[in-house]
Design brief:
By secondary structure, the protein is of the alpha/beta class. The protein has 2 domains: 256 residues, 3-Layer(aba) Sandwich (Aspartate Aminotransferase, domain 2), CATH 3.40.640.10; 131 residues, Alpha-Beta Complex (Aspartate Aminotransferase, domain 1). The chain contains 14 helices and 12 strands. The strands form 2 sheets. Strands 1-7-6-5-4-2-3 form a 7-stranded mixed beta sheet, sandwiched between helices. A 5-stranded mixed beta sheet has the order 8-9-12-11-10. Helix 12 packs across helix 14.
Amino acid sequence: MKKTTGMDRAATRNWRAATRAVRGGTWRSEHGETSEALFLSSGYTYDDAATVAARFAGEAEGMTYSRLQNPTVAMLEERIALMEGAEACRVQASGMAAMTAALLCQLSVGDHCVAAKAAFGSCRWLVDQLLPRFGIETTVIDAADNAQWDAAIRPNTKVFFFETPANPTLDVVDLEYVCNLAKAHGIVTVVDNAFATSALQRPLDFGADVVAYSATKLMDGQGRVLAGAVCGSGEFINDVLLPFQRNTGPNLSPFNAWVVLKGLETLSLRADKQSENALELGRFLETRVPRMLHPGLPSHPRHDLAMKQMSAAGPIFAFDVESREKAFAILDALQLIDISNNIGDARSLMCHPASSTHANMGEEARVDMGVTQGLLRINVGLEDPQDLIEDLDQALKSAGF
């Protein structure tokens, strides 16, 4: 296969963001196909025994087994790395496979991890349940308070792990401060950037070491497949992450990789338009609900920081209507917006985190991180925002707002 689109691969690093999203990482076979080829193969054949030995020894390029490499998957990894500004990327079977791999590949018994308390429910499960099970100490802090990061550091602290914006409370972490603090202490920062993607925010530009993704969300953008990704330096991806991934097998299927490749072509267009729609809906809702959590609005406590780190606030925000009964009444009255726990979709979706995405946490932990029984999270899609406003308006009226 020809591993470029007719240019030297080094030249792709000079391409601008929109070009990278469409053409980055494209390999072409002798057929000269325009769309990336889908290679559905678990194994590969070789011309001779010496070639096999050289590839397995890492002395020659080429495929060996699809748990290690696959041409379609490799194209996706190269494209995501280019878009992220990373040296390398490895994709995984889901977002949670990516988060798990990014942590377990570098943490051992006796190590310490500091994590943000505002996080996706399964990410909190990793920190609260899984890591301690393997003798890894964890401390959960208010990630929006810079002083708490400093105070939580111990001699054995190895990793800072956080989301920004956070799911579902939209907490915003000061990337530059936290990443610089980590570097000063030899700590690796792992940032979950799923709410923004590289289209809206690039944590590596602020000093992050590792960026992890649920590519299921905005990268695919149409609710079709599960996928995850981890980006970082070549040394981290190849020497730290790859041995863990190769031997535990959380690999992404070629078909899912191909679907995400297609999604990346329109990522920035969707992310920008959905952010614009979300801001319009946020302004409407702010006058109608008791509490709004939208980093794109001046009312958000870290609005200025969010706008410093992000080109737009993203399609996802939350608002609080004070009780589970009122939250359910709004959800049940929706006519256009779907009740769903997914995010990043081109369709508008809304859910009640306390009974869905964060249901596996105890009530005390939910309250501590701000996931109240009245909290609703909305993913704003590509529909006409006026239709969405009208749907929310009638749902709010039906629920007594």
